[in-house]
Amino acid sequence: MAEQANAPGHCSTREVLQSRERPPLSVAALHEAVPRELSLQDWLSRLERQHPVSIDMGLARVQCVAERLGLVGPGARRIGERVITVAGTNGKGSTVAMLEALGRAHGLTTATYTSPHLLHYNERVTLDGQHASDDELITAFEQVDSARHSDAGDGQGVISLTYFEAGTLAGLWLIAQRQPRLAILEVGLGGRLDAVNIIDCDVAMITTVAQDHAAFLGTDLENIGFEKAGILRAGRPAIFGSDHLPSSCAEHARSLGVTPQVLWQDFVWQDACEQDLASPARSSADGLWRWQRLSDPVMTLEALPDPGLPRDNAASALNALVAAGVALEVSCVRHAMANVQLKGRMQWVQRHGRDWCLDVGHNPHAAGYLASRLAAREPSARPRLVLLAMLGDKDARGVIEALSPVVDSFVVATLGGERARQASELAVVVRACQGTVLAECDSVAEAANWLVEHATAGEVLVCGSFFTVGEALAWLDDEDA
User: Fold this and answer.
1) Taking a C-beta distance cutoff of 8 angstroms, is the pair 100, 80 a contact?
2) What family classification does the UniProt entry report for this protein (predicted)?
3) What is the structure's pLDDT at 222?
4) Average pLDDT in the 175-187 region?
5) Residue-wise over 49-71: b if at least 16 C-beta within 10 A, else e?
6) Of the chain's two ends, which shows fewer C-beta atoms within 10 Å, N or C?
7) What is the DSSP letter of 334?
8) Is there a contact between 462 and 469 (Cβ–Cβ < 8 Å)?
9) Nearest to 85 by CA among 251, 266, 317
10) SS3 of 127, please?
11) Which residue has the higher pLDDT, 6 or 394?
12) CA distances from 163 to 44, 49, 52, 114 (A)
């Protein structure tokens, strides 16, 4: 799963996941009127300081402010005609991107809320395919701040919100103002206690379940699955994007009277050259593919273009839209699959005589998928080098072991911030996995420059964190400039 959030004013993710204490604003500061004409950067800096911990699990505070904003509770109107929520360890971002592309291709107005962002906070909210403007976000933050300070007669007084909670409420408020025909919400850390889960969905999706964020979710996959399944709603369709989810997901669905629709059981995909749908291919080979829904309504879409994103997620997105009542047209689906784009997910960029692949994968499950995609490429792509930088609370050994069969050597870099893992620490892990370390660098930009100056031609994979890809994209932008 992606890291939860970004700190303001930096080109990549920065919200600290650890529930560490930090100096909060004083009581007087919490009550004071917010100065007018704050910039977006001012707002983000203020939000980062206003709550004593960066993650505060639970929905009571955010639910109360949401009621004051009219987002939930008696008399609240829905934020959109159809609402799809997407949870999971990996694959949420690509699923949201394809849902949005498919919705727009079918003529629906759309809005999405996602986290984290790579370069700009505005990426978190898209309205009809456009990132929210600074002015729109500032207005939303003003509304949220006014609501948390308001005397609503609920006995709660002033309510303190985390950076992520305030940003989520602002995003939901903006979406509600647009009343899109399709609202797509990415659920962050966990699911059950995530701020996004205050919104009741029409369709809930769980992409994958794997270990990540162990400090908050633990290492027991059944417990992690239960947390993810907390986004399910009684009587509403549930889409499982894997047939290997923990049994706790299905058990929770049954407790709500919901029969989940499961990939490879209720819907499948296959390469166009394959004929036997009884044994669907689980590869991600290039070329056209087909999608088939096996349960009511039964339907098949042929000759779909490769979206360049996981086809498991593409198949799940198609099934979710059917469950949400969208009548799929094959021409619209083809257009969406041919044109969907998502930064930082198998994103290829040509610079300095070589191909750079940027992917935010930061756990063994994501690294395994990445390795399978790279293995399918032409052998002439070798040598393949890896620019790797990771946070200290991630499974570096698992990621390196997953990548090692398809790469030749590593250039490791240090990320900034309290959770950073030093390049020297990563180098030790690489060597313990029998890998070759070409250089240890103090930053992603330094590592990229080292590769340009010293490494022979070949593909470069940049991965390990949203931080890593964000800083690499910033470096590439500087190079373009």
Assistant:
1) no
2) Belongs to the folylpolyglutamate synthase family.
3) 92
4) 97
5) ebbeebbbeebebbbbbbbbbeb
6) C
7) H
8) yes
9) 317
10) strand
11) 394
12) 8, 8, 10, 14
